[in-house]
Structures are given as structure tokens and as C-alpha cells.
Amino acid sequence: MHDPYGPNVMQIRCQATRVIRGTIPQQVRRELMAAVKAGGLGRLKKDGLKPEIFFHPDHLHGAVERQKAEAMYSVKCIATVMASPAQVREGLEAAGVDVLEYAKAEVASMKGASGE
Hints:
Number of domains: 1
Strand order of the largest sheet: 1-3-2
Low-confidence stretches: none
Number of helices: 5
Helix content: 55-70%
Oligomer: single chain
Largest sheet: 3 strands, antiparallel
Structural class: mainly alpha
Number of strands: 3
Mean pLDDT: 86
Order of helices and strands: HEHEEHHH
């Protein structure tokens, strides 16, 4: 049996999603984009702090959630270094995150880390 896609595409199809944070070799990008055009992969474009995601076509919702989580992580990293609380809130809202749910999750994770 011959796979219609190359090894990079098959790896993403097996893993369900792949986050692209930087540049990738042109040959690999061509292979992935050809698979997207053929319907073998899906792709979410980079949007601000949201990274580019290639995903198995059956895992669109998981890819969207992964992209949001990656954007939220980026906002959190930037916020811990240099942002005011108002800027953090704006960044979360721009990434489509519910600010109240985010705050609740942060409190819960801090309680869990302290052993309470």
C-alpha cells in the first residue's frame, strides 16, 4: 500500500495537530500545502499571537482549541514580563478568551500548585 502523502503529512495526520511557531523548510511547507489543497490536512492561519496549525481534517475543533491555548500561553508569557493587568485583559479578549473563566482557571491552578 502506497501512502498518497509524504512523511511530514502522515506524521501530522497521526498526531492530529502540529503547531508551527517559526519557519519551516520550503520543501516541507510545499508538501503540507499540497496536502491541504488535496484535503489530506487542514490549516489554521497564523493570526496575531495565534500560531499556524496544520491538523487532521477530522480534528478541526481540537486544532481551534490548541490555537487558542497557544495564544493564551503567549499572552501569559508576555504579561508576566511587561504588561499591566489592563493590557493582559485586552490581550485575552483579543485572543477570544473569556477573561472570567481564565481568572478562575488561574486561581484553581495556583491552589493546586500550593497543595490546597
